[in-house]
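Consider a typical record:
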Amino acid sequence: MPPMDASPTPPDSSPRPVIGWREWLSLPGLGIPGIKAKIDTGARSSALHTHDYSLYETAAGERRVQFHLRPLPTRRWLELECDAPVLAMREVKDSGGHIELRPFIETPVRLGGHEWNIEISLTNRESMRFRMLLGRAAIRGRFVVDPGRSSVLGPKPIGVYPKRRP
């Protein structure tokens, strides 16, 4: 049997940046300058927390969603309002086996010096530690995940949100 290579080369032979099991990233298309995300290779899709959302249709017939989120659990008073076109409504099975119909949007994500478009479902993650889950479809072919590290490419954003209620 041939010896196993301790550092396998990615299938396309290009080096990929390493990210940790959690990273700070931004969603510039939604006006979210910083949010801590759990990198979850066990989840196919990505998810973003919202405690409410409203689906509507524009005069031109475009389906959109307006939603609110609190990007930092420790600053419950800080709330952002976002608006985006609805890509699709899909059923998603959570880790507990519950099926939920969720709106999906597409938006740019920025992690370190990398920016690309991802699909994100909107759901209530109030009881979860992380307001965002970055699933394997979003990182496939782009990064290598080191589960022993965190905040490798995305250090905590300092000064992007007010410290006190305005």
Residues 55 and 65 are 4 Å apart (CA to CA). Residues 1-10 have pLDDT under 50 and may be disordered. The longest strand covers residues 99-111.
